[in-house]
Write a structure and sequence with these properties.
By secondary structure, this protein is α+β, with helices and mostly antiparallel strands. It has two domains: about 5-235 and about 325-330, L,D-transpeptidase catalytic domain-like, CATH 2.40.440.10; about 240-310, no CATH class. It is built from eight helices and 21 strands.
Length: about 350
């Protein structure tokens, strides 16, 4: 099947020419040898009409990340003058850094292109309970533009029982839960695709597919080639360093679908010990801070050595800048990237996915 990639490129260029609002995947140079962290924290000052979801989408952060970084802040009405922490600071998943790597507990996708020493990262919505994704390796086997979705009967029945019946078939278009662009993996009926409910990115909302912001799917579709390797991992505890002499732990809520014989605390200890083996120098770990992060996961990398400042101290030292971007508005709650014009009409390529 030939996919009209030239139209996707046209759409991509038109979209970014007319709007600066949409999220773009963060692009970072690969860290130096012995380091595995990219990005940085920032603090923005919200206005009256801003929401955490708007701020998260602009900075390409998922719902789970923006909520964990701002406990106690109303996601729909943070309030004028509220300082909002934007957690655009990441510990990369364990190597190999090849192709697409999805850390399911982190609800984040990383793309390591073979021809550039950079990493792109995107937030993703993952499966809801009882619809787990496989762990392991696969690859991209097709790129589908304007997919349709024939809803499996078990999903129809689930929605009916929940009092939220859905059609048996969704044609291509902005209201399609599969979005307007999709990357098909080698796992049965599992896609990486846009969504008609972008505010669910970072939540557990799918029946097996990985949901990204519609504007991110444009980027992925443009960059990813058929044959790109895909690896999904269950890494709730990421350990890293960035050259400042401290050791960091990034912790996420466990995913119940993946059973591990070790306790959560032991898994964190194992991750720390494994990372220390790869380093020429070791630090003295503040184990109480590790226990705290296991008991109350924090999606922001937090220093865990005894001489390190607390995360609160680090955030307090950051300058706060006004958030100056327009709200997304109701028209952004669909599968079309906000502000984008429709590309020239093309023949739809049918894709049938396991989940929406």
């Amino acid at each position: 099947m030939k996919h009209p990639l030239r139209y996707v490129k046209y759409w991509f260029l038109v979209y970014f020419a007319i709007t600066g609002t949409g999220a773009q995947a963060a692009e970072f140079p690969l860290p130096p040898a012995g380091q595995n962290m990219v990005g940085s924290l920032r603090v923005v000052i919200a206005r009256h009409a801003d929401t955490l979801l708007d701020i998260a989408r602009h900075y390409d952060v998922g719902y789970n990340e923006i909520r964990a970084a701002n406990p106690g802040v109303d996601p729909w009405l943070p309030g004028a003058g509220t300082h909002v922490v934007v957690p655009t600071w990441y510990i990369l998943p364990p190597k190999p850094w090849v192709g697409i790597v999805i850390d399911i507990p982190a609800r984040r996708l990383y793309y390591f292109p073979s021809d550039k020493k950079v990493v792109y990262t995107f937030p993703v919505g993952i499966f809801r309970p009882n619809w787990p994704d496989p762990l392991g390796t696969s690859k991209i086997i097709a790129k589908v533009k304007n997919p349709s979705w024939t809803v499996p009967k078990d999903i129809q029945e689930e929605h009916r029982k929940a009092g939220d019946p859905i059609p048996a078939y969704f044609p291509p278009g902005p209201d399609n839960p599969m979005g307007e662009l999709a990357l098909q993996t080698g796992w049965s009926q599992i896609y990486i695709h846009g969504t008609n409910k972008p505010w669910g990115v970072g939540m557990r909302v799918s029946h097996g597919c990985f949901h990204v912001y519609p504007e991110n799917e444009v980027q992925l579709f443009r960059m990813i080639k058929v044959g790109t390797p895909v690896r999904s991992v269950d890494e709730p505890y990421l350990v890293g360093s960035n050259g400042d002499g401290h050791l960091y732990l990034q912790s996420f809520a466990l995913v119940e679908a993946y059973h591990n014989p070790n306790s959560p605390q032991q898994r964190a200890v194992n991750a720390i010990r494994e990372y220390e083996k790869s380093q020429s120098t070791q630090v003295v770990v503040n184990w109480q801070r590790v226990i705290d992060l296991v008991q109350k996961p924090n999606t922001i990398p937090t220093p865990i050595d005894v001489n390190a400042p607390s995360l609160q101290q680090i955030i307090a030292q950051l300058p706060a800048e006004p958030y100056r971007y327009a709200p997304y508005g109701d028209d952004a709650n669909q599968a079309t990237p906000p502000g984008a014009t429709n590309p020239p009409a093309t023949r739809a390529s049918k894709g049938v996915a396991k989940g929406n």
